[in-house]
């Protein structure tokens, strides 16, 4: 429930179709303005994948985006692969 609610908060903070944030198996949201996915491929050009524990640490401000990225805990593809400006969620 914490993952789903925090993804909801992220989606409210930065609505848009440009970046897909995936926290498998609990949820995924599309955020930020930018190019949408093409009709043949439903995945946006920018995709960020995180494990639930990594996501919750970031959402709560326990660790930083740079720390998790440097540790190899974040898989990010595309030009907008840094959510540090949106995290932590409670600020």
TrEMBL record:
InterPro entries: SCP_3 (IPR041629). GO terms for molecular function: transaminase activity. The keyword Transferase applies. Keywords: Aminotransferase, Pyruvate, Transferase. Residues 1-89 form the Bacterial SCP orthologue domain. This is Serine--pyruvate aminotransferase. It comes from Bifidobacterium cebidarum.
């Amino acid at each position: 429930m914490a993952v789903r609610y925090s993804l909801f908060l992220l989606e409210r903070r930065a609505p848009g179709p440009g970046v897909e944030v995936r926290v498998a198996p609990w949820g995924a949201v599309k955020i930020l303005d930018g190019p949408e996915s093409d009709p043949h491929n439903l995945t946006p050009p920018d995709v960020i994948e995180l494990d639930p524990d990594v996501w919750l640490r970031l959402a709560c401000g326990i660790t930083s985006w740079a720390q998790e990225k440097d540790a190899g805990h974040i898989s990010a593809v595309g030009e907008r692969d840094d959510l540090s400006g949106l995290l932590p969620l409670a600020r």
